[in-house]
Amino acid sequence: MREIILYIAQSIDGYIARQNGSVDWLSDYESGDTENSPANNFATFFETIDIVILGRTTYQQVITELSPDNWAFPGKEVFVLSSKKLDDPNIISVNVDELLETIENATGKIWVVGGAMLLRFFLENNFIDKMMITTIPISLGKGISLFTEIDNEQKYKVINVENYNGLVEVTYER
């Protein structure tokens, strides 16, 4: 059985990126020096994932800003939702119909990385089973919101809350 998980960081005012798409503000909080760190928690989470799904803008950000020197998702099947085919041997570039087919036929855990438009698509189609949202103690003032307007109400329950050296991760389940 498949499980689709949103695992993402946001600022305390609800933004996942600056207005220009940059997530440079996250680098101050990525330390993995202690056992109780977001980096260690992410590594544990990443080991459980079978498929990674990104939007094209997030994919571009990963390869240029977050992980320009090495592939960020080694050993994972990676799908990028894009209206145009992308020339990268690390990914499978798909349109909406191909993505829906992938989701329907998938088993294991699927990580929805972002961004906001991809998340909106997943929420509007009731695909998100679990959300793991880490709130970073920084206010960006403006930027790209984690959630955009969706056409349907969805209810989740809190199943876990963790404090990672001042970063708060809340896990919700549908």
Topology:
Blueprint: E1 2-11, E2 15-17, H1 38-47, E3 51-55, H2 56-66, E4 77-81, E5 92-94, H3 96-105, E6 108-114, H4 116-124, E7 130-136, E8 144-145, E9 157-164, E10 167-173
Parallel strand pairs: 1-6, 1-7, 3-4, 3-6, 4-5
Antiparallel strand pairs: 2-8, 7-10, 9-10
Please give a structural write-up:
This protein is about 25% helix and about 35% strand. It has about 170 residues and is of the alpha/beta class. The two termini are about 15 Å apart. The model has no long low-confidence stretch (mean pLDDT about 85).
The total tally of domains equals 1
The portion of residues forming beta strands comes to 25-35%
User: Helical stretch count?
Assistant: 4
Low-confidence stretches: none
> Order of SSEs, N→C?
EEHEHEEHEHEEEE
CATH superfamily: Dihydrofolate Reductase, subunit A
Radius of gyration: 16 Å
Biggest sheet character: 8 strands, mixed
CATH topology type = Dihydrofolate Reductase, subunit A
Placed side by side, the strands forming the largest sheet appear as 5-4-3-6-1-7-10-9
Helical content stands at 10-25%
Question: Average pLDDT value?
Answer: 87
Span between N and C termini?
15 Å
Assigned CATH architecture = 3-Layer(aba) Sandwich
Structural class: alpha/beta
Q: What overall form do the CA principal axes indicate?
A: globular
CATH domain class name: Alpha Beta
| Tally of DSSP β-strands | 10
